[in-house]
Structure formats: structure tokens, C-alpha cells
Amino acid sequence: MRILIAIDHSKDSKFVISLLQKMKWPPGSTLIILHVTTLDDEMSGESLSRLQKKKLDDLRNPPLPVHAEFRRLEKQFASETLQVQSIVVNGVPGQEILSLIQKKKIDLVVLGSRGLSRMSGLLLGSVSEWVLNDAPCSVLIGRPTARKTKASSNFKVLLATDGSDDSWKAVEFLKEVVRVPADSTVMLLHVKRKHMYETDQFVDRAGKSQAEFTKLAKNLCRDKGAVGVSLLKDTRNTLASLPLNINERIASGHEAPEILKTARQQKVDLVLMGSKGLTGLRRLLMGSVAKSVSQHAPCSVLVVRSRKKG
Fold first, then answer.
1. What is the pLDDT of residue 55?
2. What is the DSSP string of 125-192?
3. Domains and CATH numbers, the chain
4. Kind of pairing between the strands at 29-37 and 2-6
5. Over the stretch 237-247, which tens digit does the pLDDT of each residue have?
6. pTM
7. Which of 74, 112, 205, 211 has the fewest CB neighbours in a 10 Å radius?
8. Across residues 150-174, what is the average pLDDT?
């Protein structure tokens, strides 16, 4: 697996680094650390003409603080199962990240929800959205949570599933690729879209037998409740080999608000979901769900998609 992490000196970027430390990657994986030097990073009273002349030298010789940080991170992440390399480029962050994804055939790109910039702050604030929209691979957007956790604390994941191909890829991603710490808690969430005249409701599996949970779900969502229960059961069985604490929830409402509501209530560290939902109009609707969740979630968001060819 090939992972790309884009870093700067922002708080979110430092958090992303700590987030990756909690995860275990498949043997033989490669981690590429990228820093994009922007124009305003270099502007310290120098004229544009001088900056233009020194641009090539900057690309060949990264600033000493960046160089030292890269050496530290390479030692921190390198292991028998994970190779690490670092790259510095000069340009527009979103454009350079997307270009490197194509060149290096990246499977997962990792970046903070917001970058750090004096002159182009508004532009950098949209980098994560730009990459999420255009990247041909899975995207992990790191965002610190309000919950204070230690390295050994229970890690909480919210896995949103609707039975689509991409949501099953998210399940496999959790099982085979991003292996979170043992004894982490995973909340499986299935949302049945409600009619306008219905109120938002949910039912949790916690403390209930399978029969009780099925009955409550059918009362909540009628026939679709049984379908949701079956989907969550299949998902739980798929993850059964992992040392995880699994909870289940079925909600009647709208996808993005219910995902965000559950993320806040459960105080999760990571929301995991597929990039696209069901086919037809629902595919368009679910395509916007990932964008909405990534923008408003109180935690990190991992959107899983198969890498597009070409």
C-alpha cells in the first residue's frame, strides 16, 4: 500500500502525524511525506524577481527546519514493514498533492483539515476539500477532537454503511488496511432515509439481544429496518476476527446529519465511510454526504474509494 501524508507546521498537520502513529499498515507499505513550499512561505521582504531566481535552488535544497523535521519523521515511522521517503516541492498545495497522487499511484492520501499560511489562508483552507473531490484514491482528513486521549486510550471509530460497494470497501479498509489499536470501539451505523413528515429517531443494539434489536428496528423503519439489521449483522461478522468492541445503531433520518449527530454523541475519533452510495439519484445524494461530513465532523474523516485507473 502507498500512503501519502501532506504536512506543514499547522496544528492539524501535527495531529495527523500523531493519528498515523496509532495505525498499523499492511507489510510492504510505503509512506511518502510531502511538504509543499508556497510563495508566502518564502516572502520575507524579498522581491518577486529574487524569489523566482532562487526557486530552483529551493527545490534542490529544502529549508533546514523542513529537512530536520523530515529526518525525524522518517526515523519515527520507518520499520521492517513500512518504508518512508520524503519530498519537498514548490507550488500550490492542492495541485501538487493531486499531481503526486497520480505519479506515485497513491492508495491513501492523508492531510489536515486546515493548513497554515499567511497570504493564502483561504485557499489553503479549501485544500482538503479540493483533494477529497478530485483525488482518485481514499482520503483521510485529520481533525483534532475535543476529547483528550492518551496514546493507550480507547480509540473510537464510527463506520457508516448503506450496503453499497464503496461502503463495503470501507469495511474491508478497516479490516485489512487501517488496523486500529486492539480493543478499539467501532460503532456501525445504518441510516434509513425518512419521509419529510417523520421525526428523526434511532435505536442502539447495546444491551439488547438480536431479536430485540430486530423488533425495535422494524418498528422504527418498518420493512427497511429488517434490511438494516441484516446489513449490520453481516458487517459485524466481517469484522469478527478483529479485537474490536462493536456496537450497532440504526437511525431514521438523513445520512449526513445522522452521521454527524452520532459522531458527536459517541465522541468518536474517526468517521469511516465510502465515497459513493447506492446507484442512480442516491449515488448523487451520497456523493454529497462524504463532502458534508468531512466539512462538519468534530473528528477525523476517512473516505474510502477504489483507485481510479488512467
1. 46
2. HTHHHHHHHH-SSEEEEE---SS---TTSPPEEEEE--SSHHHHHHHHIIIIISBPPTT-EEEEEEEE
3. 2-142 (3.40.50.620), 156-304 (3.40.50.620)
4. parallel
5. 999 998 899 99
6. 0.78
7. 211
8. 83
